[in-house]
Amino acid sequence: MSDTADSLEARTGLTAAQRRRRARVAVQSSWANTADRSARTAPARQAFQARFERQVDPNGVLPAEERAERVRHAIKAYMLQLAGRSSRSRKAN
């Protein structure tokens, strides 16, 4: 166990597994009380999109249609990279 985990356990009186369980309960309760899931996640989706817009058009000079097309490709490439990492990780375990 790491020093951080030891100190957390000493401060909270909870093991790592107990803290994870408590966090999972909190997350599920939070989503259960969320009326508009789309509105809640909108800022994250906007930030994700903006990240790729900055990547493909750092100076903001492309026409909107061209920028959108490049963003779609950049996101697709990113997702394919994530899938590759996930696959390698599963094979390693």
Question: Which labels suit this protein?
Answer:
single chain, 93 residues, mainly alpha, 0% strand
Number of helices: 4
Class by helix and strand content? mainly alpha
Mean pLDDT figure: 93
Distance between the termini: 21 Å
**Strand-residue proportion:** under 5%
Order of helices and strands: HHHH
Oligomeric assembly: single chain
Radius of gyration based on Cα positions: 20 Å
Poorly predicted residue ranges: none
Query: What is the approximate shape?
Result: extended
Helix content range: over 70%
Number of strands: 0
Verbal overview:
The protein is mostly helical and 93 residues long. The chain contains four helices and no strands. The longest helix is centred in the C-terminal third of the chain and has 29 residues. The protein is extended. The two termini are 21 Å apart. The mean pLDDT is 93.
How is the secondary structure organized here?
Blueprint: H1 3-12, H2 16-32, H3 37-56, H4 64-92
Quick take:
This protein is mainly alpha-helical and 93 residues long.
